[in-house]
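[09:14] KT: can someone run the structure on this one? pasting the chain below
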Amino acid sequence: MDIRNAKRPAKGTVPSRTETSTDGGTPLTPTVNEDGTLNAAPEGISEDMILRENWEYLKEHGITEQDLKNLLDSILTTGNVAYDFKLFDKIPVCYKIREGWVDDIIIDRIDEITADKGKVSALRYSNLIAEMNLAASIVRFGDAQFNATDEESFNNNLKFVRSLAFIYRNRLIEKLAVFDRAVTIATSDWALRNFTQPLKESSE
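[09:31] RB: done, structure tokens below
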């Protein structure tokens, strides 16, 4: 995982997909009701269970503990992190953590859609969230540069994302899911306990 420091502090909280346990069973993050509203995570699903599932997912995608340490270090020192990779080993792509203001835009857009249609399917909801999260996260695709700093630039990014061929868009969303889960794990209490020194030691 190619991690670089990024200067712009940011955070994003809207999940990019409806996460499901690796055995295909109980969803680990909120699901969508028939009326378009969100369910909370099912009773009995703890944060530790979600972290374990996410960690197994990351290991399957080649993410190491050192990657998580580097990611956490970047977030603690700069407030953000850049994730570089080559799509299909050819096209350079870069993501950064989404800024918090994007969450409000995404939620408002979903509200508008559900208000018009009365309800939205879980698949449609997931696709909408994934596209908008991608538009807010991407800063490079090939020679093109992006920077979602306001709603207008976010909309331009979203138009670009939706103009991509399905195979490109789908693969970009998959890579973003890896990045998002890595950020989730790296900023968890577990990572802070394991990847940072106690204050007494760090001050010596």
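[09:33] KT: thanks! The chain is about 50% helix and 10% strand.
[09:34] RB: yep, looked fine to me
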